[in-house]
Design goal:
Number of helices: 4
Helix content: 40-55%
Order of helices and strands: HEEEHHHEE
Shape: elongated
Low-confidence stretches: 128-132
Distance between the termini: 81 Å
Radius of gyration: 28 Å
Length: about 160
Amino acid sequence: MAGRGRAMTNIVKLGVKYGPAAYEVVKHGREPAQAAAQKAYARMSARRQALAHAAALVDGSVYQTFSGDQPVWVVFSGDEPVAAHPATDVSPSALLGHADLGKRIRPDEVGRKARRLSRARRTGAQGDQATPEASVRPDPGEAAPSVTGATVDVEDD
């Protein structure tokens, strides 16, 4: 148990030496870290609220734009802007001055890529575990290949 005693001695020495400095760092560094975490949570919460709002509307969609340096999600019903999340003093129509409304996001489209990737991981079709059919890419000018085992036979018409 001599190793444990030596480790405890080193911990006490380092604590006495660096403890006050570490306390000051934690004391003064906590507020900015909390503010950054709250800002990130509010940003994600606004997106989630906007998507939920759009899902409840007929032909609902959302578009991210900025009011100053703050991201704002504008909710649409069809082509009409109806709300903004988080709430701002600027009207949703004014936020969309030079926006490309073709890039709006529909609530049912969110997460499709993640679901597709998780499905591919579950089935094991990735990297070296891919099936021979998945790794064969036919040339558009050639006839469709038929895969048998590890060899590829090209059928000529």
